[in-house]
């Protein structure tokens, strides 16, 4: 399984990358806005830090404008992937871009049928949003299991990026259900590698050790 970092913060990317945990990066317009940096400049910097896929999202809503934006964005790095929203116009753009060999990540997927349409149109990655589905009381992990079953059954080339992951439990669930990739916000990582019993254990080991090494 691969981990992407769901951030445009280059300090977070460098920190987590130094632990060997980063296989790629995803961004969206909200994430880019949070950093207050130039879109092209930050994506180019991220694409130079990681050799894995770096998703950068189009702003246009019409297929021909999305394709034009995608042509620009895809020049920012060999590993840059164009993120396209899950709409009819988005599917049209994905179909054109896949024929041109430009990699796409279809985002804002909330149902099995949306995932199917994106796979069929030629998406390299599909991004179902776990946290936002659970926010409205839907069963998000079942969506991951169903999408994985369909990919394996029909041999689609698309890979699932489980997105909108906010808790360790959500990450554990999507891992068990076959998401190829989970994209994880920087602030969630420390919760994934810490446990209170680990900290207590270290404290008691050191306390016992000091008794014999005065
Ligand atoms: O990758 C999509 C993700 O960034 C959305 O997360 O927490 O805004 O639902 P969230």
UniProtKB/TrEMBL annotation:
<dbReference type="InterPro" id="IPR022999">
    <property type="entry name" value="Transaldolase_3B"/>
</dbReference>
<dbReference type="InterPro" id="IPR013785">
    <property type="entry name" value="Aldolase_TIM"/>
</dbReference>
<dbReference type="InterPro" id="IPR033919">
    <property type="entry name" value="TSA/FSA_arc/bac"/>
</dbReference>
<comment type="function">
    <text>Transaldolase is important for the balance of metabolites in the pentose-phosphate pathway.</text>
</comment>
<dbReference type="InterPro" id="IPR018225">
    <property type="entry name" value="Transaldolase_AS"/>
</dbReference>
<keyword id="KW-0570">Pentose shunt</keyword>
<keyword id="KW-0808">Transferase</keyword>
<comment type="similarity">
    <text>Belongs to the transaldolase family. Type 3B subfamily.</text>
</comment>
<keyword id="KW-0704">Schiff base</keyword>
<dbReference type="Pfam" id="PF00923">
    <property type="entry name" value="TAL_FSA"/>
</dbReference>
<comment type="pathway">
    <text>Carbohydrate degradation; pentose phosphate pathway; D-glyceraldehyde 3-phosphate and beta-D-fructose 6-phosphate from D-ribose 5-phosphate and D-xylulose 5-phosphate (non-oxidative stage): step 2/3.</text>
</comment>
<feature type="active site" description="Schiff-base intermediate with substrate">
    <location>
        <position position="83"/>
    </location>
</feature>
<dbReference type="InterPro" id="IPR001585">
    <property type="entry name" value="TAL/FSA"/>
</dbReference>
<protein>
    <recommendedName>
        <fullName>Probable transaldolase</fullName>
        <ecNumber>2.2.1.2</ecNumber>
    </recommendedName>
</protein>
<dbReference type="InterPro" id="IPR004731">
    <property type="entry name" value="Transaldolase_3B/F6P_aldolase"/>
</dbReference>
<keyword id="KW-0963">Cytoplasm</keyword>
